[in-house]
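Continuing the series of single-chain predictions for the mutant panel. This is the parent chain; the variants come on the following pages.
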Amino acid sequence: MNKKQKKLLFRIVLASVLLIGIRVMQEFLSDSGIKEPVWFLLYLIPYLVTGYDILKKAGKGIVNRQVFDENFLMAIATVGAIAIALVGKTGDYVDAVAVMLFYQIGELFQSYAVGKSRRNISALMDIRPDYANLEEDGEVRKVDPDEVAPGSIILVKPGEKIPLDGTIVEGRTTLNTSALTGESIPREVNAGDEVISGCINMTGVIRVKTSREFGESTVSKILELVENSSSRKSRSENFISKFARYYTPAVCIGALALAVLPPVVSLIMGNPAAWGRWIYRALTFLVISCPCALVISIPLTFFAGIGGASRAGILVKGSNYLEQLSKTGIVAMDKTGTMTKGVFEVSGIHHSSMEDERLLEIAAHAECFSTHPIAKSIRDAYLSGRFRKEESAAKPVIAAERVTSVEEIGGNGISAIVDGKQVLAGNGKLMERFGIEPIACHHVGTIVHVAVDGSYAGHILISDMVKPTSKEAIRKIRAAGVSRTVVLTGDAANVAQKVAAELGIDEIRAELLPADKVTEVERLLQQKKDGETLVFVGDGINDAPVLSRADIGIAMGALGSDAAIEAADVVLMDDDPVKIAKAIGIARKCMRIVYENIVFAIGVKLLCLVLGALGMANMWMAIFADVGVMVLAVLNAIRALFVKRV
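Parent structure:
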C-alpha cells in the first residue's frame, strides 16, 4: 500500500470504530434523555472522518460546473439521509455514515487494484537503466545513458542492465531477456554479437560499442509505447465515458422526480404527502445509480490486459487494438523469419558450368553489399570453405574492390560487375528479364540462379528451416477461433507449399513483391466477414506497408527493430509464433471480462433501481448495488492480469 492508501485505510478503521461505539452507546443510553442534536453531532464525527474528501470534491465540482459525478451522488444521498433523520428526530444516522464508509472501502479496494496493475506495468518500466559505465581515455566513469554518444565504449558488469544498444567488442556473458520477451531462458552472447538495452548481464564483464543514442534505443521505444498505450481507447471505453456523461444527469433528474412527483400527486388527490418516505426512496435511488462499477472496472480491465500482455512479452499499443484483436477471423503471415527461422543455408549447387567453389565465389562477390538473409547465406557458405576441393587452398576472402556497378532489382535479385564480368544472381524472373533461360531445380528450397556475361552458369539451392514451435502455433491459432490462415511470401511457390503443408496452413500466396502483398491483404479484407478482424504478422522491417494496411499488424521477433515498433499495432518481443495465439487469447479474455462486467453491473443496477423506486430496497441494498457491485467488477477485472495459462 502507498501512503495515500494507508491514510484512507486509517480513516476507514477510525470511522468504523467510532460508528460502532456511538451506536452501542445510543442503544444503552436510549432512555437517558440525551437530546437529538447530541446524537447528530456525535454521528457527524465518523461521517466527516470518512467522507470529508468526498464532500470537498463534490463542492469543487459544483463550483467548476462539473456537477454530475459519483462524488456529487454520494454527497447528496448521505447529506439527504442525515437531513431526514435530523428533521424527523429519529436519531438514526447510521445509514448515512455507513453509505459513506462502504463507498470509501470500495474506493480503497479500487485504488489497490489499479495500483497492482500499475505495478505490473512498472515492472516493465524497470528495464530503464539508471546509468552507463562510459570508458574514456582508459578510465571508466558512471554517466547518465543520455550522455553516451553512438560509437562510445561502455563497460557492463554482472548484475547490471545494458543501458544502450550496441555490439560486444570484448568478453562473453549470459543475458537475462525476460523483462523484454517474457521468456526466462538466458541467452549466450560473445564478442561480435549485437545486444540491446534493457537486458540484464548475468555472468561476465563485457565491453560494448554503442550503435545509437539512448533516445533511439530499444528500451526507450518500448517505454514510450507502453506509456502511450492508455491514450488509444477502445470503443467499449469510449462508450462507457459517453454513457456516464448522460447517465448521471438522467438518474439525478429521475431521483428528483421520485422525491417530488409522488407526494405532489398524493396532495392533489387529497392524501398525505409523505415527503420523508419519498425523499428517502430518492436518496436510495441515487446511491444505487452511481456508475462506479462501469466507470472504474472497464478501463481497469483493458489496463490490466495490456499489463498482463506486456509481462508475457507482447506489447499492445492501446486498448482499441486489444478490442480489435479479440475479433480475429483471418491471420495472414509472412513466411521467412515469422514461421521459419530466417536463417538460410546453402544446401547444394546444381547445373554449374564451372567448379562449384568458383560459382559460389562469383555469387558471393555479387551479393557482398546486400543485407538480405539469402545474400548472407551465400557469403557465409563461400567463406566457410565447405565447397572447396583442396583443403590446402588459401582461406576464402571477399574483396569488395573486385565488385562495381551493383544494382539491386526489387523482387528479382542482384546485377553487378565482378572482375570485369557482368554477374546476375537472383530468381527465375531475373533470368527471364535479361533473356536467359534458367534451368529448373527439382529440390525444394530457394533457388538463386547465376549468369555470367549473359550465359547461364548454374544455380545455388538455399534452404530455410521451420521454427520448432510453428506447427504448435498454427494449431493454437485455430483453437483460438481463427477461421483462415494464409501465408504471403516472396519465396518460390514450391517452397511456400512445402512449408504450408508441413504446418497445416490453409492458403498460400507465393512469389509476391512487397506491393503484391498489400494487394493480397486488400483482397482478404474484402473477403472477411462483418465484424471480423484481419491480422497480418510480419518481421516488421520489410513488411511495414502490409502491417499498416491490415486491421491489426503484429511485428514478429521485433526485438530492437525500429520499423516494427513504428508500423505494427502489436509487437511480439521475441520470434516465437506461439505468441500470436497467446495475444489473441489475451484479447479475447479481456473482452469477455469487459462484457461480463457491463452485463453484471447494468443488470444489478436496473434491478435495484426498480426495487428502490418501489420502496422495496433500503439504503443497505443501495450500498450493495453501488459498492458491492463495484468490488465484484474490479475483482473480475483483475483477472485480465493473469495471462500465464492463456
